[in-house]
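TICKET: design request
STATUS: open
ATTACHED STRUCTURE:
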């Protein structure tokens, strides 16, 4: 029996994490949308902000936003915090199971920086803690006096973090840790600002008084930040499936670009809901332009990739040498019977035992082992630059295999 505990933990926690994340992001978008469509009523009483009528699931809902609440409803208030906490906790568990458990494979790329396992995890954990402390300190200091300045500094700091992480960790880990840092900021916004402020508002309402309106203002701002971070974070969470992003030689720029795309799309949604259609479409157009630029940029070969163009003009590469490379560098994992203890089953079903299997996967092999250094994973099998160049040349020549070997 093959019992693969880490794969099962990975699956169950991931399932849970995605589910919690959907609920959190769903409520975030719902409330931001609601705030954008609320209409103030002239006869609205003290603390009145606005009202909206909604139609869903066969019923009409009347929603009113107010900064004060009658004491009579306080016991039946719905708070919306567990979505955030559960998403963060399951995400942190997943980070440990997938990335930190096998930090040697997933966190470290010796061609980026020669780190120890402890150093790589320390950098990851440091990003989470320091990221929050700096962000929170910045907004506490400048949030009310100079919010535009705080925003500018926050964005500049994010670019610096993206640059630093991609120059310390493996590409995929850098993307994931940048997402985990933003996710931590989002969850901490709930736990450390929104909830404490709401508790103070609640206490004021219980005492029959009125809370400082700044409490509401601060909570709303953090909640808006959270909303703007959702789309970039979702990209970072799914990015590990897309090596053309994190595997690019200038992956920090790709990361920043995708961050901007996410923010732009969110700004489009929010501006449109507020009735600022012009701003919304401008943001959408900018997001599309950046996305297009990122696609063109990643399609151009990464500067570090072996140049096959020169090699193609040379003599044809003998398939025997190509097969030798697969046998020594890849089939340890990618085989019907992998010898790797880590991967008892061929990852993604990708097997390179026969010439036909290798040829069939040529495009994916180019993406994972030539355009990027994603494979061999963690370069565990110590593939050399010469071998990559040989493989690149063979692929550029159309990945020919001897006709007698075409049967799978
Ligand atoms: C130590 C184990 C290991 C070795 C050695 C290894 N791989 Fe992989 N490979 C994986 C894992 C695990 C995945 C699954 C995706 C991931 O985790 O990135 C994968 C995925 C892939 C994919 C992507 C399949 C898809 O569906 O997109 C390709 C292509 C690939 N490997 C090619 C190679 C090539 C070529 C080599 C040798 C030069 C190689 N691998 C060596 C573990 C390995």
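STATUS: resolved
RESOLUTION: sequence designed for all positions
ATTACHED SEQUENCE:
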């Amino acid at each position: 029996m093959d019992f693969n505990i880490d794969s099962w933990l990975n699956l169950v926690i991931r399932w849970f994490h995605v589910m919690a994340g959907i609920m959190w992001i769903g409520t975030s978008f719902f409330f931001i949308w609601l705030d954008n469509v609320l209409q103030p009523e002239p006869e609205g009483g003290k603390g009145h902000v606005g009202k909206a009528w909604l139609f869903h699931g066969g019923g009409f809902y009347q929603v009113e936003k107010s900064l004060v609440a009658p004491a009579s409803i306080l016991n039946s208030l719905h708070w919306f915090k567990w979505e955030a906490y559960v998403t963060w906790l399951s995400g942190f568990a997943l980070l440990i199971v997938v990335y930190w458990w096998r930090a040697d494979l997933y966190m470290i790329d010796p061609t980026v920086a020669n780190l120890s396992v402890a150093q790589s995890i320390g950098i990851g954990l440091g990003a989470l803690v320091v990221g929050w402390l700096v962000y929170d300190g910045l907004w506490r200091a400048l949030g009310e006096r100079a919010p535009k300045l705080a925003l500018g500094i926050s964005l500049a700091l994010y670019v610096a973090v993206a640059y630093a992480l991609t120059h310390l960790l493996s590409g995929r880990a850098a993307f994931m840790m940048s997402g985990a840092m933003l996710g931590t900021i989002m969850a901490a916004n709930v736990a450390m600002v929104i909830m404490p402020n709401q508790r103070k508002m609640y206490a004021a309402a219980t005492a029959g008084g009125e809370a400082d309106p700044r409490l509401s203002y601060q909570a709303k701002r953090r909640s808006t930040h959270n909303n703007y971070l959702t789309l970039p974070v979702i990209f970072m969470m799914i990015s590990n499936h897309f090596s053309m992003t994190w595997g690019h030689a200038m992956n920090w720029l790709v990361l920043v670009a995708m961050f901007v795309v996410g923010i732009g799309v969110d700004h489009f949604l929010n501006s449109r809901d507020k009735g600022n259609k012009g701003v919304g479409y401008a943001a959408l157009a900018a997001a599309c332009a950046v996305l297009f630029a990122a696609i063109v940029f990643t399609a151009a070969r990464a500067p570090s990739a072996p140049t096959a163009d020169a090699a193609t003009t040379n003599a044809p590469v003998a398939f025997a040498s190509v097969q030798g490379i697969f046998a020594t560098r890849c089939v340890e994992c990618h085989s019907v019977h992998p010898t790797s203890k880590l991967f008892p089953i061929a990852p993604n079903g990708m097997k390179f035992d026969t010439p036909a299997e290798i040829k069939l996967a040529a495009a994916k092999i180019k993406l994972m082992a030539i355009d990027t250094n994603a494979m061999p994973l963690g370069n565990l099998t110590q593939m050399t630059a010469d071998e990559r160049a040989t493989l690149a040349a063979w692929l550029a020549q159309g990945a020919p295999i001897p006709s007698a070997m075409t049967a799978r």
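CLOSING REMARK: The CA atoms of residues 263 and 382 lie 39 Å apart. The mean pLDDT is 90.
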